[in-house]
Structure formats: structure tokens, C-alpha cells
Amino acid sequence: MEIEIKSQTDDEIVFIIRDAEVPFVNAIRRAAMVNVPKIAIEDVNIIRNDSAMFNEVLAHRLGLTPLVSDLDAIEGLLLPEDDGWFEPQGIAFSLNEVGPKVVYSKDLISSDSKIKPVYDTIPIVKLKKGEELNVEAYAKVGYGKNHVKWMPTTVCAYKQYPEITFNDDVDIDYDCADACPRGVLKSDKRSKKIKILDIENCSMCKSCVRASINRAAANGAPDNSYINVGYRENDFIFRIETDGSMPPKEVLLTACDKLGEKADKFISFSEKEE
Q1: Cα–Cα distances in Å, from 246 out to 42, 65, 141, 155?
Q2: Phi and psi for 16 in degrees, rounded to 5?
Q3: Taking all residues of the chain, what is their mean pLDDT, rounded to a whole number?
Q4: Which region holds residue 116: left if phi is over 0, alpha if psi is between -120 and 50, else beta?
Q5: Structural element, H or E, at residue 42
Q6: Residue of 10, 14, 30 whose CA lies nearest to 259
Q7: Which of 109, 156, 213, 231 is such that its CA lies 20 to 30 A from the CA of 61?
Q8: Furthest CA-CA distance within the chain
Q9: Strand, helix or coil for residue 139
Q10: So what's the pLDDT on residue 65?
Q11: pLDDT digits (tens, 9 = 90+) for 84-94
């Protein structure tokens, strides 16, 4: 198996996996979504809430506020499988504001300087003049399989690597390039061929194939397409995008570690049964 990183930013990574199988690639996707530990607000104690927002909605918004959850932040914190996780403890946050104002995520005061909201400008609630808000909250480490607030990825998906071929026995159909909604194809009448500009941007929608078939049918040659769109059986384009709580590469590596741990447990169980 080969891996090639195509692009990488603070919250997104795109890479190509070659010589792999669908079940393995899908296992990485699922592990990245539901088995990577992340920090999120779990317990909320609303002491006073004069706003128009219901307490349950306010608590829900606080829980979905992304918090810094990289390896340094999580180190030393209890995991859901540890004893004592369900006890009323964790990283404490306080929110004490008086209107008129819009309360933003930056107003959440954390007891740990390393663990804070990823973004400062997430609106939480709007207070009118004289309205008060006094909240105590506690954040814990959890997994996406238990609640979406602990899911580090906003996008975690793959597609099989596209493959475009042309039928040399059929007259060149320059119009099929114009049918591509993503600009993957470009007709070059000077060189008498169609160029592939960005094969990895192809969504395999086959709009170009349908356009070519319709043109062939109009000329009395039904189902005779100049262009064919398929995919490579064991090559994939994988994309991971996070909510900013942790770097995407860290999510990928942690997911692979979790997958390896599951494999080791399965092997040990099988050997024990034998």
C-alpha cells in the first residue's frame, strides 16, 4: 500500500491511497469519525438564564462548541472507559454575562489555559438589557460513537480514483468536454484530442458520457460513446476535514492506532479461543 499526501492545511488533509481494498479504507474512515478521543462540554449547570433561549438549547449549543483537543490537551484526562469518568468532574468552564450583548464562545472562561474554544466568534446567545446569564460547565473526553459533539471530523470521506479513457474507433466528440460540470476536460481542436486537466476533481457523474451517447444516437450510432468514465479498483482519494479541535493528520494517525489496537485484540481473542 502506498500513501501520497496531495494537500494539507490546519484543518484539512487530502491524500491518495494506492493498492488497498474498500473494507480497509472504510475502516479508517469509521475509526476517524467515531474512535478518536475529543474534548467537549458534557455537564452544564445553569444557575441563571434570563434569555429567551431554553436551558436545554443553551446546553446543547455549549456542547457543540469545538474545544482544543490535540494530544497535549487530552494527555492525563480520563477516557470514557476509565473508572471515574462518570463522576461530576472535568475541565471547568464559567460563563457570567449581563446584557445587552451577544455572548460569544470567547466569553467561556476555562480552568485550563490549554483547553479553550477553537474559535472566539461562535455566537451562543443574545441577551437583552438587564438579562443575566450565569452558567457552570464541565468538559470531558469522549468518542464520536457516543455523541456527535465528540466527533472531530466535519468531513471524512473517500472516493475511488477516477479513470477516463477514449474510444479511438469513434469520431472525436469535442462537445462532451463542455458537458463536464467540474471543468475536468478541455477540447483541443488544434491537436485533435480532449485533454484531461484534473482527473482527481472528477466526481464520476458521467455527464460527459451521456452527452457523447446522445450525440452518437443523433448520428444513428446509439450507445456508442467516445468517452468512458470509470475508476481504479484499489486506488482511493481520501479527504479529512476537522472542526479545528485537532490537526487532521493527528486524527488520521490516532484512527490508525485505534484500528491497530482493535486488530490486536481480535488476534489475541482468536488465539486464546484456539
Answers
A1: 18, 14, 13, 13
A2: -110, 135
A3: 92
A4: beta
A5: strand 38-49
A6: 30
A7: 156
A8: 79
A9: strand
A10: 97
A11: 888 877 899 99
CA-based nearest residue to 42, from 154, 146, 155, 153: 146
Place of cell 479508517: 28
The residues pairing with 241 across neighbouring beta strands, listed in sequence order, are 12, 155
| Entry field: residues in the chain | 274
The DSSP output letter for 117 is B
* Beta carbons within 10 angstroms of residue 232's beta carbon: 12
Question: By the 8 A CB rule, do 77 and 141 touch?
Answer: yes
All residues at 6 or more sequence positions from 85 whose CB lies less than 8 Å from its CB, including other chains: 78, 79, 140
Task: Give the angle 125-151-25 at the CA atoms, nearest 5°.
Answer: 150
Task: Write the pLDDT tens digit of every residue in 215-263.
Answer: 888 877 666 788 999 999 999 999 999 999 999 999 999 999 999 999 8
Q: Which residue has the cell 441577551?
A: 127
Residues 21-62: pLDDT tens digits? Answer: 999 999 999 999 999 999 999 999 999 999 999 999 999 999
Q: Indicate if the pLDDT at residue 159 is higher than 80.
A: yes
Q: DSSP string of 175-189?
A: HHHHT-TT--EEEET
pTM for the model:
0.86
How far is the C-alpha of 222 from the C-alpha of 16, rounded, in Å?
A: 36
Please compute the mean of the pLDDT values over residues 162-176 and round it to a whole number: 88
Could you tell me the three cell numbers for 31? 475509526
Burial of 88 (0-12, 13-18, 19+ CB in 10 A): exposed
